[in-house]
Amino acid sequence: MSNQKEEIRIGYYVCHCGHNIAGVIDVKSVAEYCAKLPNVVVAREYKYMCSDPGQELIQKDIKELNLNRVVVASCSPLLHESTFRGATSKAGLNQFYMQMVNIRENASWVHESKEEATEKAKDLSRAAIHRVAFNKALEKKKVPVNPTALVVGGGIAGIAAAMSLANAGKKVYLVEKDPTIGGYMAKFDKTFPTLDCAACILTPKMSSVLKHPNITLLSYSEVSEVEGYVGNYKIKVTRKPRYVKEELCVGCYDCITACTFKEGKFPDEFNFGLSKRKPVYIPFPQATPLVAVIDEKTCIHFKTGKCPQTCAKACERNAIDFTQKPEVVELNVGVVILTTGFQPFDAKKASNYGYGKYPNVFTSLEVERLVNASGPTEGHVVLRDGVTHPKSIGIIHCVGSRDEKTNKWCSRVCCMYSLKLAHLLKEHSGAEIYNFYIDMRTPGKGYEEFYDKLLNEGVQFIRGRVAEVNDWATTPEEKGKLLIRAEDTMIGMVRRIPVDMVVLAVGLEPGKDAQEIRKMFNISCSNEGFFLERHPKLAPVDTFTEGVFIAGACQGPKDIPDSVAQAGAAAAQALALIDTGHVELEPNTAFITEERCCGCQVCVAMCPYTAISFDPVKKASSINEALCKGCGTCVAACGSNAITQNLFTDVEIMSEIDGILIN
Amino acid sequence: MKYLYFPGCSLKSSGRSYEESLLSVLKKMNVGVEEIDDWNCCGATNYMAMNERNAIGITARNLALAEKQGKEDIMAPCAACYMGLLKTQKYIETEPKVKETVLTNLKKSGLEFENTSKVRHPLDIFINDISLDTIKDNVYAPLKGVKVACYYGCQLTRPYATFDDQRDPQSMENIVKALGGTPVEWPIKTRCCSGSMTSTVSEIGLRMSYLILKEAKDRGADVMITACPLCQFNLECFQGKMSGKYGENVKMPVMYFTQLMGMAFGLDKKELGLHRMLSPELSLS
Amino acid sequence: MTMKSTQNNLPLQEISHESDLDKNFGKHIAKMAHGEKLFGCIQCGNCSASCPMSVYMDHTPRKIIAMIRAGFRDEVLSSKTIWLCASCYNCTVECPKGIKITEIMYALKRDAILTKNYPKGFPIPILSRTFYNEVKRSGRINETSLLMKYYFSYNIFKSLGYAALAIKLFFTGRLILFEKGIKNKAGLKQMLSSSKN
Asked: In the 8-state DSSP scheme, what is residue A506?
């Protein structure tokens, strides 16, 4: 079966992983069993193979017993493959002569029967011992890293990450899908727990981004294609037409004043529809860039072609251009930071709370605008009719969150922002405020103190999840009110509380384009749809794709301080990669044996990374090693058996299967 | 179109007019109905409270009898029967132990059971099989200006039914619109009427039914329609008692939705069991 | 168990001792109700708030779940709450943790009957028992016979309040005095006898 000349000498090591493995698997009997297998020179068990003494054990054996293959049966290769490869190579052996067996996730953690788990550990180990004999010595390739970064998403996380990188002297492209950067934070009134004004602390950052010589801001743009690999990404960004030339517009509002619509007519996105805008608009006075945008869905020119185009005539700088088309920009970057944020839970889905049915049920985001001095009501808290001041307000926590029917997770920020809104609503309206919460979650610096403050301000707190909001009045006092029904679980009685206004503290969920972005950048999502970090504790801003980092609420619900901190961490990780100057690539790529290739080009079409091209002269395909991600698709697809993949050659796989089957 | 009909106990006694009106309306629309032979009690609420395994068992007997009789869908007009049949199917589908016991017991009385029938409520059948257009086509006297409070009660939409929204069902409203009437928007159409509590803890039971009638009246409804014999009985038969007890007149016509359909179709009062009603009569001008 | 009264009706014992609790009660009820989810209850009270009967109950449904988990067996089984559950399933469809609260209430009713812990003299268990026996006897429910037997067991005088209604129902043909029941009573009986709860 093999043509090896050297004598194979295998060292086998089974790890206890404390109680994790040894608590279920009889590691001693596994080691004894493996010691008797062909080619095995030594078989040992040790409490923690990943510890320094554990690694030294391997190194010592390699040197003293002349081992030329190593098998480690422990946890997932994801966790410690690099550890044991490192140990192997330190002892002078090629690191790919080390084969790992996962008997933790694949055996001890998932089986109840100790006997069966032990048998399985033996089977898996035997397979690896069979295979490792055929492992080849391989070398990792070094490629240079392009020192430019791409940051996707211009909310507070993206702004913070871009600024850190730019201040470190790196060139940064910041891509934002909306006409302005600033994200949700730009829409908030005050921030908890300090109650400093969101705009006051954010807008200076926004203008720094615009002015920074190292940052190129691509607003109203979206990433449309991603190619390449760590250190060398080729990104296509589609710039949506604003129909206003960005380089000419100075944000003077003349076009908006001159628009053929005398008044705003369409729901204003920035105010969550609480005010109206014209088809040509600037999202808000501190928009960055301060450039007008024409919305083709509402502009008469685009709908009928029969518009007097008063906006264009009013513009002294001739900035309006109805002929603009989407434009694709190509960027070469070495690292990517995704800060694409979240979307608020759609309150209509919690139909028991009557959002969309009863006008005076508001979402928390709408209320952020209502209490904002520069909002649609200049900070006056009024009902949907625009004039009535509410005398009583109920704030319902956990809307859409902690619920199996909608979002299972705690959205983490709602308790605190509900407390903040309670304070602001009370301050602005003097109304009686009720907070309905399930558990009050205030884990942050100064957060519990903020809760204390609210308790002392006379805001009412009722511990109970609201079952229903409706207009069912059963007494004369309840007429015309919204009725909130909840159990006051501290008292053990059900209460019906009539209020004028209901505020729904909507939770945070993955953005609607999260899946698309995930696919483009080849990263993973956790069950709920947020981007998955490489390790929940030890690599919180890395992803499973090298060179792609995540920060902010795209990774999970997060408040402003945490988003900014994570953005800093992501920027630091990106900088570390850039400043190393090069990356080592896994040698798990595929290659084509030209003589065997029949030129059918099936592989070319199958490759998800466009790494394969066809040479018409040689009449054979070839694989660009730098682009190949080692997914194995072409290997399986090739009818002529012409493609081989390093680390997964036929003989390696077949011998592993043999090892499982031959007992 | 044909259905296997599971009437349930109430439709043969206090809820007779539900059966009469349902069958008349279906006949008018050329829909065939065949009663399941020798059906028994559905094992509703009070039975389930005593013995779950038997409740599932006797309901499965009904399903088995239906299977023996034909492949058509089962039509169960009583909300409690409907829910009980769906629940039994679900349990047999998801609980292997329950399934085993039920099959063994059925075999003892000579019945095979595959759990293949589909259980349907007439509302589901009217909307999804017969269609609102066909209903419209049969209207003889449109319910012009008639304000209708559609009352669903609990077990019709919860927890197993899938033909309508659980919180804000619209089937009856859509039928009312097809009949030319105006449904009333009100927030408690799926709130429980108290079931059999009107005869056990009547001080609670009556109050719950009273609140429902009062709200419908406050919202300006001329008539309330129901799709469950127990809801209908509670809301119809104690109106005098409630009005006296709570000092507010809540007397209003409470009828089965099929009776209202029959009226709009121009069917004879007797065919619709309207002569059996104790609540005020709905006059169509 | 928790509240023993002295002659002055003052609570003698306010603290319930762990040794008084039935620690297996939660598991037992979870098994009867076909699901372990009750252990995932976060005590949010959505069940109580969505329940139309909760205002009449001695303990709210949320509290019942907490008491089951903690092992307050006797208090739970003898409570009126479980009998006041009208099985409207609102709590079940609204529970954010997917707990089938209605099924738990059914399980508690059955356990209370089996262990004879139900509140004595409370009308609802009496109706349930009468209902069960009627089905056993004839396979169907005859409302007249059911209610007559129920009032005999509960309180015959209570039936007088319904006499006028009964007469009206009789004259509109809605009160059926005799009902033959199903044909194959033997088959049904055979089925029932072989399945104990």
From this structure: E
pLDDT tens profile C155-169:
888 888 888 899 999
Q: Where does A230-296 show beta strands of DSSP type E?
A: 232-239, 266-267, 276-277, 280-281, 293-294
Q: Are residue C102 and residue C76 in the same domain, yes or no? A: yes
Give me the number of domains chain A comprises.
5
Q: Which of A217-221, A582-586, B133-137 is predicted least confidently?
A: A582-586
For domain B2-120, the CATH architecture is: Up-down Bundle (1.20)
At A419 the pLDDT is 98
Q: What is the CATH number of the domain that holds A156?
A: 3.50.50.60
Do A52 and A193 lie in one domain? The reply is no
ipTM of this model? 0.93
The structural domains of chain B, with segments of one domain joined by +, span: 2-120, 134-276
Distance from CA of C58 to the nearest CA of A (A): 10
Predicted pLDDT at C121? 86
> Are C95 and C138 within one domain?
no
Q: Are C44 and A438 an interchain contact pair (Cβ–Cβ within 8 Å)?
A: yes
C-beta atoms of C184 and B38 within 8 A: yes
Q: How far is C47 from chain A (nearest CA, A)?
A: 8
CA atoms within 13 A on the CB side of B155: 25
CATH code where residue A608 lies: 3.30.70.20
pLDDT on residue B87: 96
Task: For residue A492, give the nearest of C49, C60, C97 by CB distance.
Answer: C60
Average pLDDT over residues B228-247: 95
Q: Tell whether the model's pLDDT for residue A39 goes beyond 80.
A: yes
- Boundaries of domain holding C169: 123-193
Q: What is the CATH code of the structural domain delimited by B134-276?
A: 3.40.50.11810
Claim to verify: residue A505 and residue A517 sit in the same structural domain: no
Nearest to B211 among A352, A470, A474 (CB): A474
Among A565, A582, A599, identify where a domain stops. A582
Of B167, B187, B211, the CB nearest to A471: B187
Q: What's phi and psi for A333, nearest 5 deg?
A: -135, 160
Find, in chain A, the residue whose alpha carbon is nearest to that of B186: A472
Q: Considering its fold, how many domains does chain C have in total?
A: 2
pLDDT band at C191 (very low <50, low <70, confident <90, very high): confident
Is A303 part of any domain?
Answer: yes
Based on the domain organization, do A407 and A357 belong to the same domain? yes
Task: Tell whether C146 and C170 lie within a shared domain.
Answer: yes
Contact B167 A352 (CB under 8 A): yes
Chain position carrying tokens 């940064």:
A172
Angle of CA points A590, A591, A596, to nearest 5°: 130
Residue linked to tokens 């609790």: C21
Please check whether residue A662 lies inside any domain of the structure: no
- What residue of B is the nearest CA neighbor of C181? B40
Distance between CA atoms of residues A187 and A414, nearest Å:
16
What is the residue type of A303?
A: K
CB contact under 8 Å between A352 and B211, yes or no, is no
- Paired with B136 in beta bridges are none
Which residues of B are less than 8 Å from C108 in CB distance?
A: none
Structural domain contains residue A98: yes
Element of type H or E holding B70 = none
Q: Are residues A502 and A574 in the same domain?
A: no
Whether residue B143 contacts residue B179, with contact meaning beta carbons closer than 8 Å, is answered with yes
Using CB atoms, pick whichever of B167, B168, B187 lies closest to residue A472.
B187
pLDDT in tens, B77-94: 999 999 999 999 999 999
Cβ within 8 Å of residue A249, ≥6 positions away = A290, A291, A292, A317, A319
Whether residue A133 sits in one domain with residue A16: yes
CA distance A65 to A50: 20
Which residue range is the domain that position A355 belongs to?
A: 345-509
Q: pLDDT tens digit string along C6-33? A: 456 665 566 778 888 999 999 999 999 9
**Cβ contacts of B190 on chain C, cutoff 8 Å:** 90
Residues of chain A with a CB closer than 8 angstroms to some CB in chain C: 352, 402-405, 438-439, 463-468, 485-489, 492-494
Q: Are strands A215-218 and A172-175 parallel, antiparallel or unpaired?
A: parallel
